[in-house]
Amino acid sequence: QVQLVESGGGLVQAGDSLKLACAASGRTFSSNSMGWFRQAPGKERALVSVISWSGYSTYYVDSVKGRFTISRDNAKNTVYLQMNSLKPEDTAVYYCAANSRTKYGGIYYSSNEYDYWGQGTQVTVSS
Fold it and tell me: What percent of the chain has pLDDT over 90?
């Protein structure tokens, strides 16, 4: 059974940092693109950041550029999201996603390109 399990969420104050981790089990995603999405209350799930299989290519939405860093450790089958200078508007459930369809491809921006999802981890930033 393939699973993506997120961890590292929590309640923090504005300006604080958190590091999310997403550990995959059941298969390796070392040759696949992975990403982080988030869903705030009353809003649709939205892209935060994605990373290519090698880690050399990354993408961030404008609202998190310069504050968030995505990385991966293929030996551990894990992807991370370092979040610094958190703001109340970063409050959301954060989901890890993996694209299993394309090996050694690029990065993908649409949630439709990702076929494995974690259960989500709550990040709450108080002002």
Answer: 95
